[in-house]
Amino acid sequence: MTLSFSALESFYWVSQLRSFNAAANKLNVSQPTVSYRIRELEERLGVSLFVRQRRQLVLTSEGEALKHYAESMIAIARDIESNIKTRNTRLPTLRVGVIDSFAAVCLPSLLDELDIRFAGARIAATVDTSHKLADQLSEGLLDIAVLSTPPSHDNVALELLGRQSVDWIASHKLGLPQTIVSDEELLRQRIFATPAPSNLHSLTTGFLAATAGAGLRLNVCNSLGTILNLVESGTGISILPSRLLQEQIRHGTIQVLKTRTTLPLQEVFIGTNKGAIVRALPQVSQMIRKVSASVGFCV
Q1: Which residues form the HTH lysR-type domain (predicted)?
Q2: Angle separating helix axes 20-27 and 5-17, nearest 10 degrees
Q3: Of 34, 73, 120, 287, which one is least surrounded by beta carbons within 10 A?
Q4: Are 155 and 273 in contact (CB under 8 A)?
Q5: What pLDDT, in 10s, does the model give residues 70-102?
Q6: φ/ψ (deg, to 5) at 106
Q7: Global pTM value
Q8: Are residues 31 and 21 in contact, defined by beta-carbon separation less than 8 angstroms?
Q9: Which pLDDT band holds residue 226 (cuts at 50, 70, 90)?
Q10: Is 119 exposed, middle or buried (0-12, 13-18, 19+ CB in 10 A)?
């Protein structure tokens, strides 16, 4: 019995996306082709791989077992391409997702590195919160991403890049003390954070949970750059990654607030979809590490 790799690949993406149509779009084939491959796989194995429950596709126990094998085979195929096709320097459009702070500090250097290694490489960059980037990785919409403390997905592999410090910051215009700022004083300010369920939102609300009964003026914005501009103008305060603030601190446009409780370091990861077959991903991952180290993105 010979199993078709294309059938296993189709099965893997149907199992991840829970949709024949979505898997077909991901693989750039027709929906009937995916259906035929799954039916062929079931006939060769003599088992049912999916059942429908309340209009949703659900893996059978045999399907769950096969999923792990399919995941391993796809990873092997990626390794073969990465290690054997080393002379081909062409790279298809690479879909990269990054958090705001990495985009501001590291993305230009990463693009330069990619141009050196893969001449004429095309990049589709997505800048978003870690939760949304993790979801897009899981759905196969991104090839690789840099995320901070992301949620867990069974089909997303995470490698620790390093840790990132964060600080409470404010404009000097607000006249906040240079000594310890109390939680009550923080709560008297307008506070900016990225929308839930982002890490900065959880960090902000968690930090002030004990005293939030006094009222939390939390304003949300999906752009760290915009939040930084608002803080610089004296409109409010925020928790932001320290590496993003170096220029503003150097020019004296913001102050780092001292608080009774030290903010925890945020872990930063390189994430990939376990089923993605892009032979250059290990090399791109190394480039991300090189760029991050060269600019001191992580502590």
Answers
A1: 1-60
A2: 130
A3: 120
A4: yes
A5: 888 877 776 666 554 544 455 567 889 999 999
A6: -115, -20
A7: 0.70
A8: yes
A9: very high
A10: exposed
